[in-house]
Design brief:
Strand order of the largest sheet: 1-4
Order of helices and strands: HHHHEEEHHEHHHHHHHHH
Shape: globular
Radius of gyration: 27 Å
Structural class: mainly alpha
Number of helices: 15
Distance between the termini: 73 Å
Largest sheet: 2 strands, antiparallel
Helix content: 55-70%
């Protein structure tokens, strides 16, 4: 490599030759023969400039692939943000306007909608603002912007995983246990405390990697670092991701098995409330499967990258799979609209209110539905006429409410 080629290379990297050691310029032939030394010099400069800017030649962690035009990326991200935000607002509002959904345990579904709203209303707009603020001929983004965006994405991911696990447990106790257990663990105050604890755990676990950089390098992806999985990463993945996902899957399978066993009984006659709760549990299971489907490709790419070497997964695959996981927040709310008639009815009422300015009507339970729940004899304790919510048991000193479970 001659001196002219070397000077052009340094000029392309916005670094003057006077800032480099003299012996490195003289011994340029050694650099030509030792490609590893050259990669150690060029790659960090290509990723992060002296102004703290993050450079990627093909795929960017914040603004996607440079193979697309900037206008196409801007329109694509804007559409995702608008559609996802409106859908998540509808999902959260449905629990407030639909009477069948006004239960304390359904606040956990609202919590998932809030994490998705953080992605669609903050994380994706960060990329939109970065595209608008870029120079015309350069793909530059401050490294702090990428780290902050990844902090929010990781926080939303952890909170969603923990909320899905707690939701499955609440669904099991609602359908397959006595009402006193549901009132004890998932009352209004307890659900509020659980949600706040989940947000605290998610923010602390994500904040440690943002402040102390104890986790893997998502933004720069130093491919010359062949580090193994850090103890912090191992603990977070095992306790806050894998274990909650396993619990969610097993609990949902147990609900399906127990529900089929109860329904196979000849004397079992499900009430309208039981059918409504079972339909919501099924929607929650579909929500869990959707979450796994969107995030599984990135989980595989992440596992290969941190356990072996970042060289085994190129930037395009790594960042595309991470954005595929973020797209879950834009389309997750559609699952409840398709699979649950109460959410579908609430979506319809909210749409009429927003577009036609009509009054949001709430679906009230018919009086005979509530009466039938105290007349028929059922096998499941939570829906039995002799449960703690029935008038017959109330005369023996129990003061449980007449509702089958807490309402918001």
């Amino acid at each position: 490599m001659d001196n002219i080629t070397t000077s052009l290379l340094f000029e392309a990297l916005n670094v003057t030759t006077t800032e480099w050691p003299l012996d490195m310029l003289i011994n340029s032939s050694n650099i030509h023969h030792d490609k590893d030394v050259m990669s150690l010099i060029i790659e960090p400069l290509a990723l992060v400039s002296k102004h703290g800017k993050l450079h990627h030649h093909s795929t960017h962690p914040v603004t996607l692939s440079t193979e697309w035009s900037r206008l196409a990326r801007l329109i694509f991200l804007t559409i995702l943000s608008v559609i996802g935000s409106v859908g998540n607002i509808f999902m959260i509002s449905s629990v407030m306007v639909e009477d069948h959904l006004k239960k304390a345990g359904n606040s956990l579904i609202v919590n998932i909608g809030l994490t998705d709203l953080v992605v669609t209303i903050v994380v994706i707009p960060i990329s939109i603002v970065s595209l608008l603020a870029m120079n015309r001929d350069e793909e530059e983004t401050p490294l702090s912007v990428c780290k902050f965006q990844w902090f929010l994405a990781a926080c939303a991911f952890l909170i969603s995983v923990l909320t899905l696990a707690v939701t499955s447990i609440e669904n099991y106790m609602r359908l397959c246990t006595t009402q006193d257990g549901t009132q004890q663990w998932f009352s209004r105050s307890n659900v509020t405390a659980i949600i706040l604890l989940i947000w605290f755990i998610g923010c602390v676990a994500s904040g440690l990697q943002y402040v102390s950089e104890v986790s893997f390098d998502y933004c720069k992806r130093n491919k010359n670092n062949n580090k193994t999985l850090l103890p912090f990463e191992t603990g977070v993945i095992a306790t806050l991701i894998l274990l909650p996902l396993l619990i969610t899957f097993l609990v949902h399978i147990r609900i399906i098995i127990d529900a089929k066993k109860f329904m196979s009984q000849p004397s079992f006659k499900p009430t309208a409330m039981y059918k409504s709760d079972f339909s919501l549990v099924r929607s929650n299971f579909y929500s869990f499967l959707t979450f796994v489907l969107f995030w599984l490709p990135f989980s595989i790419a992440f596992a290969i990258s941190v356990t072996t070497s970042p060289k085994n997964i190129n930037d395009k695959v790594f960042y595309y799979t991470s954005w595929l996981g973020l797209l879950k927040s834009c389309f997750h709310n559609i699952i409840y609209c398709i699979t649950n008639r109460h959410f579908r009815n609430a979506y319809f009422n909210l749409f009429n209110y927003c577009c036609c300015k009509t009054t949001v009507s709430t679906a009230r339970r018919r009086q005979n539905d509530v009466t039938r729940s105290d007349v028929r004899v059922h096998i499941i304790p939570g829906y039995n006429m002799y449960s703690y919510t029935s008038p017959q048991r109330a005369t023996h000193g129990h003061s449980w409410a007449k509702r089958d479970c807490h309402e918001l």
